[in-house]
Amino acid sequence: MYQKNFTFQSALPQGEAQDSFIDLDRLMAIVTRRIRTIIFAMAAFVILAVAYLLIATPSYTSMTQILLDESMTKYAEDQPPAASSQQADMEIASAVEILKSNEMALRVVDTADLANNNTLLNPPQSPAALLKSGVGLIVGIFTPGRPPMTPEEMREAQRQKVAAVLQDGLKVERVTRSSVVAVSFNSTDKLLAAKVTRAYADAYLTDQLNANFDATERASVWLQERLNDLRQRAQEASLEVEKYKADNGLTSTGGELMSEQQISDLNKQLIIAQADTASASARYNQYKSIIDQGPDNAVKNATISSSQTDNSVLQDLKTRYLAVEKREQDVTQNYGAEHPQAVALRAERQDITRQIYQELQQLTASYKNELDVAQSRSASLRESIEGVVGKNSEANRSLVHLNELNQKATALKTLYESYLGRFEAASQQRSFPIAKARVISLAGVPTAPSSPKKTLVIALSVILGLMAGAGLAAFQEFRDRFFRVEADVRSALGLKFLGYLPLLGQQSTGKKRRRKGIIGSDPATAEDVEPGVAFERIMRVSVEAPRSIFAETLRNAKLASDVMLQGRPDRVIGVVSALPGEGKSTTAANFAALLASSGKRTLLIDADLRNPGLSRTLKSPPQAGLIEAVLGEVPWTNVVKVDPRTKLAILPVVVRDHLLHTSELLSSQGMQHLMEHARKMFDYIVVDLAPLGPVIDAKAFAPQVDAFILVTEWGATPTNLVRDVLEQEPQINSRILGVILNKTDMSELPRYSDFGGTERYRQKYVSYYTEAQPPAQVDA
Length: 780
Fold this sequence. Notes:
The protein is α/β, with parallel strands linked by helices and about 775 residues long. It contains 26 helices and 14 strands. α8 packs antiparallel against α12 and α17 packs across α18. The protein is elongated, with a radius of gyration of 65 Å. It is found in: Cell membrane. It is a multi-pass membrane protein. GO terms for molecular function: ATP binding; non-membrane spanning protein tyrosine kinase activity. This is Succinoglycan biosynthesis transport protein ExoP.
């Protein structure tokens, strides 16, 4: 079964067209293969879960919900700015910790009168708690005793113990992202659970009221003390300001010092005086420059506007001068310069010029007096300012300290007013006992136990069982480094797979029979057969059951040898294994019997000189064998035995105790001569060689062998061992026809095959391997 036509190409595993992250087919095959382990682990966990549910004490949980609402005090106090999400989270977290605190637990113990509650004082203990108590008792025996407690200490210790139990059974958590806090208590008594939960809600609300009242009371007392102190200090600061002003003459009007007002007035007057001085100096300089030109030039060249002087005499003289000058010019042009009228007009003009010059001299003298007066006034104002400034600098130095005193007095006054407002607000808040929380869900008496949750426990046990089973199955799979299916042979060794040899007794029906041979309880391999067991009873399976899986595998091995060694008239085939006890002797005998029954001249040589399993199966123990023939003590043809039914020639071995160098015997000249003669007489020579792992006999005999058949025990021989052995023996590895998996448990074989593997369809080929079937059961 499961044979493929032999080819010369190596049967290496072919990679998939595309790599996949998880090989689902292989995973499903592993699950199918290890399903019993997984089911066993899951059943064990389910049994443990059921046992736990039977012995566990049911407990009940009662829950209440408290809303933390800041808007409840909006009519009693000014609303602060809206808190950020981080501040809200901190407030809710603080409320949760308050509810979990020991102080809150003690308050519940006192208000609900739970100090003597037997359920809380002696709760049902878990196995771990019992173990801990036992360890504590043992440790207490060896530790020095403590002095006896007083009744008060005992009551306090009992109170603390009940509070600790309450804290242990209490659960406080925030409801999603809301401002609601869920408070629940777990107990074996459902009435007690509801009572404790209600007590916690009432205790929290009371704690909020008491905390607000106490905080407001303490704030009012502290503010009152601060107000008295601030009032006295503000008064002292104001008096100190006034006293400093009086001592330093720092009088003020309109909020400014007198010296500052004087300086401001003098500066204004000085500016006006300086302007007047500049104006007088300009007029004086102008008239003085006119006077300096002389009488004639002063009148002719000087130009005095009416806006610069208001002297009407000077204006009239100027007007007369212009009129006379014009008449003089007309007379001189008409009558000549010597005309009496022209002479009279010239004299009149000169007289007017003299009068104008005198008038200008008078005006210049008056402007000189005005300039002197203005300059004198400016100098006097400067002296006054300097005097006042000197005094004001001293006042300014005093003013710095005065400002400090004023600032201190103002700050104390402002602080006093601020604290006074806070004191009044705190006094008003004491009259509003409103908590910033309210109960939105009352704690009821639970109707069903909250734990153990049967469905959850069973489901969890199933999940844990599956996980444990999967882990155990993975561990088993990891440790299973043996040959199981054809793919293992190809991937690990890269050799041709010839087929499976089932456990004897399974070749027909494929049903498991506890590794029994076809003859009752006889062993399944020749290595394990005791002397005296009939050769044909164990070595003729392939002949007696020609349509069995066993025989079909050996036929595939024959076909492989025919293809690989075609053209050769004689063929030497060695049968080897990596370890002892893998069934190579049984395989060699049945392979040789199959060849002989097909009409081929076949010789079976037992070349396992140290452990000749084939020779032990003979009915009559041989007196001489291969060793004697090689050593030349007897002709080899004389020690050959022939099976009367299959005509198979067998060359046995007689073990010698003093024979130490078996490998040298197999590679000796005598062995070569024996093989040369045997090749001339037989078509096939099947040689049962020693295992490759422990001894080197097979390696020594390898030059005489044309091809090898490697026998490996199914599910027992490690793949790494066989691979390492073959890598160390390249001359054997290069001539291996293929690998046979012996002692295969055919009922278990499909479990190790991937989906779609040929091993999974073994049952479809049962009709091809049965010895006799009704015609109706034979496939067309």
